[in-house]
Amino acid sequence: MKISKVMLISPPMTLLNGLFKNCTVPLGIAYLGAVLEGEGYEVKLLDAVVEDINHEEPVDREHIRYGLSFEEIENRIREFSPDVVGITCLFSLQYRNVLLLTKLVKGVDKKIITVAGGEHPSALPAACMQDKNTDFIVIGEGEHSFLHLLKEMQGGKNFFKIDGLAFRKNGKTVVNPKTKFIENLDALPFPARHLLPMQKYFSISLPQSLTYQDKRHACLTTSRGCSGKCVFCATTKFWGNRFRSRSPENVLQEIQQLVEDYGVKELHFIDDNLTLDKERAMKIFQGMIDRKFNLKWCVPQGLAIWTLDEELIKKMQESGCYLVDLGVESGNQDVLWKIIKKPINLKRVKGLVKTFKKHGMLVKVCFVIGLPGETKEQIKQTFDFADKLDLDGVSIAIATPLPGTELFRICKEKKLFRRGFDENAIEYYVGNIETDEFKPEELQAMLSHYMLKYNLGLLLKHPLRFFKRFSKLLVGHPGTLTKYIFFLLKRRSKVIWKK
């Protein structure tokens, strides 16, 4: 079988109506596309969201799907006529869109090979292989496994020797576990952004953080993997439990390319652990200064608090950092250490926030509530802790039991999943866990009540801060915040949280 044309698709997105849309370069398929292109394959990247972000259709009473219509995606597939179609699935809620796409692909031509990848299929490969329209699943980090798969399709077809692959043999599913990870990340080519409509991303400007200072912003990642053991995190399942990083020089070369080829003015580092190796981080930031990039940058994925000190913070500011997200996770020390298992000392947090503010940076903090073993009183302590910090923004998520995480195992073992829980449609803004202490609806109401109070307080007490953070969003997408406020009001009204 001769394979020459590969199409990689990032599907339309499903979300609760009222939440913020997001539109960023899908780095997963961009990296994979660059690797395949380097091996001589003709590659087509299709990001359904950026191609038509204004197209919306209802999924059910609460959800919408946005992005290119399936009819138009079918037209693009027919036009390119690929031999293989790869489909990425970052979140469980998007998996139904993947199923619709694999069915669509086979409807175009049954001979087209379909390959699914991303966090959700990687966590549940055997279950996802039950879809008759999915031929293969690449598990975890995919650049080497996908390339190996294409070569075996055209050669010996010995799929048993491919690391991190799910396939069928005589009608039965076989899962080769992921055991090998790319040691030398510098050996990877830079993401194939030239295969994506970069100008559209700049025009839309809906980054993950919802905050930016220049529309010509781009996301990049400088490392993979994490040695942490956070109960809710799926990173180690996908990227491995060991921190691997690119060299400072390699990172600076990519930044140079972004500046020269795309006119980028702002960077969004989406690492899980940008500052874990302080010496490496300092070299990257100093290199940005020495090369006079004059870029603004932020860290929407969060920073590991235990890695930070004033020397590093000062260098961040000098190199252009204007906003940091700090993953504090809880305002209760016992929850942090005994439930989440994160090595954060809350006594340090207030001082770190002050240090960032002293150096002129915006500070946002991320929390998680609704974990098994957590009490309502401890959740209130998290809200109180957030209120006492001098912040420019707060992000609070309801604990989400993602497949492959320790939290998922605990919930399954103790039968804590809410009624109707579907592991193929897990949402981040919905209570998926029910304990003797709280019900999902209570968590949703508690969170909506607090977020309304917090954001209104920020607007009234610190209007300049509020508009400094959201001014670009308000101008570019004026109806977004209004929809979000109505979303919170609707959630809050469903259950009255009695203190």
Automatic annotation (TrEMBL):
<dbReference type="GO" id="GO:0031419">
    <property type="term" value="F:cobalamin binding"/>
</dbReference>
<dbReference type="Pfam" id="PF02310">
    <property type="entry name" value="B12-binding"/>
</dbReference>
<dbReference type="InterPro" id="IPR006638">
    <property type="entry name" value="Elp3/MiaA/NifB-like_rSAM"/>
</dbReference>
<keyword id="KW-0479">Metal-binding</keyword>
<feature type="domain" description="Radical SAM core">
    <location>
        <begin position="212"/>
        <end position="432"/>
    </location>
</feature>
<dbReference type="InterPro" id="IPR058240">
    <property type="entry name" value="rSAM_sf"/>
</dbReference>
<keyword id="KW-0949">S-adenosyl-L-methionine</keyword>
<dbReference type="GO" id="GO:0003824">
    <property type="term" value="F:catalytic activity"/>
</dbReference>
<keyword id="KW-0411">Iron-sulfur</keyword>
<dbReference type="InterPro" id="IPR006158">
    <property type="entry name" value="Cobalamin-bd"/>
</dbReference>
<keyword id="KW-0489">Methyltransferase</keyword>
<dbReference type="GO" id="GO:0051539">
    <property type="term" value="F:4 iron, 4 sulfur cluster binding"/>
</dbReference>
<keyword id="KW-0808">Transferase</keyword>
<protein>
    <submittedName>
        <fullName>Cobalamin-dependent protein</fullName>
    </submittedName>
</protein>
<dbReference type="GO" id="GO:0046872">
    <property type="term" value="F:metal ion binding"/>
</dbReference>
<dbReference type="Pfam" id="PF04055">
    <property type="entry name" value="Radical_SAM"/>
</dbReference>
<keyword id="KW-0408">Iron</keyword>
<dbReference type="InterPro" id="IPR007197">
    <property type="entry name" value="rSAM"/>
</dbReference>
<dbReference type="InterPro" id="IPR051198">
    <property type="entry name" value="BchE-like"/>
</dbReference>
<feature type="domain" description="B12-binding">
    <location>
        <begin position="12"/>
        <end position="160"/>
    </location>
</feature>
<dbReference type="InterPro" id="IPR036724">
    <property type="entry name" value="Cobalamin-bd_sf"/>
</dbReference>
<dbReference type="InterPro" id="IPR023404">
    <property type="entry name" value="rSAM_horseshoe"/>
</dbReference>
<dbReference type="InterPro" id="IPR034466">
    <property type="entry name" value="Methyltransferase_Class_B"/>
</dbReference>
